[in-house]
UniProtKB/TrEMBL annotation:
The chain crosses the membrane at residues 25-44. It comes from Lonchura striata. Its main location: membrane. The gene is DPEP1. This is Dipeptidase. PROSITE patterns: RENAL_DIPEPTIDASE_2. GO terms for cellular component: plasma membrane; side of membrane.
Length: 327
């Protein structure tokens, strides 16, 4: 009915054409109202902010337990582990992904925990093994296993990531994939965003179920982390993104910590059920770690192995335990 642009509305007599501004006001009124409503909506917290608040609320009771953080390696590298040096103050440290204020801001309940479990040989970590080894171990392990910092192979064909057929074994064994944030594993390039990481979490959820998803940031162990996930203070932003993607509170809590705790208690149960079984205590020579079971994926020139003997040792320790766990 109303002519917005022509200025020749049949409802407006030509003698009042110079009053068009007045009639335009009426014509525009609904649009103005709409604009005002929009402005009011924008002044309210956006859905993004609401999700962030929701994330903070959830994480205040279920802080994240991340599968892999390399701060210990940074401390070794920077300070030769001399933690009494004034510069090694974990509150003031400012060129690492991890320090105490950032951990607090990120609602981090545990990192490195998993490595300690590995050291104690309590949980099998398949993050650094070949696909064949993943399959064999998932097939024979009595207890669920974890990938402490690996992402989805179908989204980025990096051999540190977990292929879909292995994700199905992860699902059938109640195991866990703690998604790595390293740009090179997320997008197979040197740039990535928080949303790309959420895509990996969505994918693991789609193929293996929400109970198979965890966080395995790899902070302080990698040179490039995604925009939006710059350091350990940013976990709540990723949780907000999962909420925005309609993850339920239960699924989010699972990914934050409860899935890992479930695997851990299952591992303990299996351990208890095998109390009478004799231990395999033959050590594995360090040189043997270069065998075909261990990947060099992601570590050109084998630099990763030379750089991180403790992580390299975690696997044989875990495998040694696994062997003792087999009937
Ligand atoms: C580390 O720095 C904080 C903040 O300046 C200070 O309160 C704390 O005493 C320092 N810790 C050590 C062990 O020096
Ligand atoms: C970072 O920490 C070092 C050592 O504590 C300090 O000398 C430096 O001024 C700090 N830099 C910033 C930007 O806070
Ligand atoms: C392990 O592999 C064998 C041989 O392929 C298969 O028969 C068996 O069902 C597998 N077990 C599990 C737990 O997947
Ligand atoms: C989340 O759920 C809402 C309401 O059911 C729906 O409109 C929206 O498209 C969903 N978002 C995603 C990313 O699935």
């Amino acid at each position: 009915m109303c002519s917005h642009g022509g200025g020749r509305s049949p409802l407006v007599p030509s003698s009042t054409q110079q009053k068009m501004p007045d009639s335009s006001v009426w014509v525009l009124a609904p649009a103005l109202t709409l604009a005002l409503v929009l402005a009011l909506v924008l002044a309210l917290p956006s859905t993004g902010e609401q999700h962030l608040e929701e994330a903070e609320r959830i994480m205040s009771t279920t802080p994240v337990i991340d599968g892999h953080n390399d701060l210990p390696w940074q401390l070794l590298w920077k300070f030769n582990n001399q933690l009494r040096l004034p510069a090694a103050n974990l509150t003031l440290l400012n060129d690492t992904h991890t320090n105490i204020p950032k951990l607090r801001q990120g609602h981090v309940g545990g990192q490195m925990v998993v490595e300690e479990m590995n050291r104690l040989g309590m949980m099998v970590d398949l993050a650094h093994v070949s696909v064949d080894t993943m399959k064999v171990v998932l097939n024979i392990s009595k207890a669920p296993v974890i990938f402490s910092h690996s992402s989805a192979y179908s989204l980025c064909q990096h051999r540190r990531n977990v292929p879909d057929d292995v994700l199905q074994l992860v699902a059938s064994t109640g195991s866990l994939v703690m998604v790595n944030f390293y740009n090179a594993y997320v997008t197979c390039s040197d740039k990535a965003t928080l949303s790309d990481v959420a895509d990996h979490m969505d994918h693991v959820k789609k193929v293996a179920g929400a109970q198979a998803v965890g966080f395995g940031g790899d902070y302080d162990g990698v040179p490039g982390v995604p925009a939006g996930l710059e350091d350990v203070s940013k976990y709540p932003a990723l949780v907000a993104e999962l909420l925005a993607r309609n993850w339920t509170e239960r699924e989010v809590k699972g990914a934050l910590a409860e899935n890992l705790l479930r695997v851990f208690s299952r591992v303990e149960e299996v351990k208890r059920s095998l109390q009478g079984t004799a231990a395999h205590e033959t050590p594995i020579a360090f040189e043997e770690l270069q065998g075909p079971c261990r990947t060099r994926y992601g570590y050109p020139n084998g630099a990763g192995t030379a750089r991180r003997p403790p992580a390299a040792l975690a696997l044989p320790l875990a495998l040694a335990l696994l062997l003792s766990v087999l009937s």
